[in-house]
């Protein structure tokens, strides 16, 4: 069983990647980012409480090699452990709208309806979060 790093998320969820598994890419959170990942988990707990349903993580931390393999942005917050792609156990658009309209702070909230997941990212300093929300 994977160690819990917050009320709802485990260490294993922070490195999950079907692409990484398929390509044999080791995706390990470096010690220098473990506190950041734990901070993100605590922020993600508030999203989980708001939605009141389980959320399956598709992608959280990404090593540079994994980020390149998935075609991620060169400045992706995933590489700092501050972004999560997840699937809530409810209607995707309802979840997106609930987060968007909740008053919770975030940097970016992106719905990918064709790929059926939501991306959310946070900044270390909540006062710098842009609350950008859009569809891709």
Q: Can you put this structure into words, describing what you see?
A:
The protein has one domain: Muramoyl-pentapeptide Carboxypeptidase, domain 2 (2-Layer Sandwich). It has a five-stranded mixed β-sheet, with helices on one face. By secondary structure, it is α+β, with helices and mostly antiparallel strands. The protein is 29% helix and 18% strand. The chain is built from four helices and five strands. It has helices spanning 18-23, 34-51, 64-69, 92-100; strands at residues 55-59, 83-88, 108-112, 117-121, 132-135. Strand 3 (108-112) and strand 4 (117-121) form a beta hairpin.
- What is the string of helix and strand elements? HHEHEHEEE
CATH architecture: 2-Layer Sandwich
> Largest beta sheet, briefly?
5 strands, mixed
Q: Helix tally? A: 4
Radius of gyration: 14 Å
Share in β-strands:
15-25%
Search tags:
about 140 residues; alpha+beta; 5-stranded mixed β-sheet
Q: What's the short version?
A:
The protein is of the alpha+beta class. The protein has helices at 18-23, 34-51, 64-69, 92-100; strands at residues 55-59, 83-88, 108-112, 117-121, 132-135.
Topology of helices and strands:
Layout: H1 18-23, H2 34-51, E1 55-59, H3 64-69, E2 83-88, H4 92-100, E3 108-112, E4 117-121, E5 132-135
Parallel strand pairs: 3-5
Antiparallel strand pairs: 1-2, 2-4, 3-4
